[in-house]
Request: fold
Amino acid sequence: MLASQRRARILGLVEESGAVRVSELVTLLRVSDMTIRRDIEQLDRDGLLERVHGGAIARNGRSSEEPGFSAKSGLMRDAKRAIARVAADLVSPGSTIGISAGTTTYELAVAVRQVPGLTVVTNSVPVAQMLHEAETNGQTVILTGGVRTPSDALVGSVAIAALQMLHVDRLFLGVHGLDLGAGLTTPNLVEAETNRALVATTQHVCVLADHTKWGIRGLSSFASLRQVELLITDSGLPARARATLADAIGEVVIADVPGLAPVAEKS
Reply:
């Protein structure tokens, strides 16, 4: 397991239970005590959890905690790139796509930056900046405008008004969490409103989410799983979750990540 995968697993456990002990993580992840402590220290520096004696705890109000773009970029990087490569195969020259804010969707933007004649509608500052700086083969980038969040999304009334005038062939959507009951969630209330406007731009919603997003509930729901036509995730998703999602979503595609097997599920 790579460091980014291990840290994402630690963060997922903290989000789920509220706290973890170093000794428990050593046994579960089969690495040294020192390795776990370094992982926790890094996640603490990134503002994703709080390091305490003997382990780590979730930060107060974790359902509304919104990590920054750079902090999230280092987590599950190989999985995000594998997901993006699969998603990029769905993008045709000359088409119009929506790309929401997020680190996995950013990797998709990287993967399609040379697709000729592509029009990209986005509320992501990093996505727009990267595509603007690339040699784009006649691509057009439409940035919504709006108020910038810690995750570098542009949200609010200006973004929503822009999106209400637009239609895209397919939307590629990043999420904070995926849950059978809560659906697609985010920790930011205004971002949830903007994401609803993004979903309304198309009849073809494709969610890009690594396996650590499953079972996570952010503060606000913005779409049900039934509204998702396609979910692209990674090979770390547990078998039971795959079956559950296959019943709730039009199609689930698993991007293979070398060395990443389905994680163990709690009994």
About this structure: The chain has ten helices and 15 strands. Residues 71-255 form a domain with the Rossmann fold fold (CATH 3.40.50.1360).
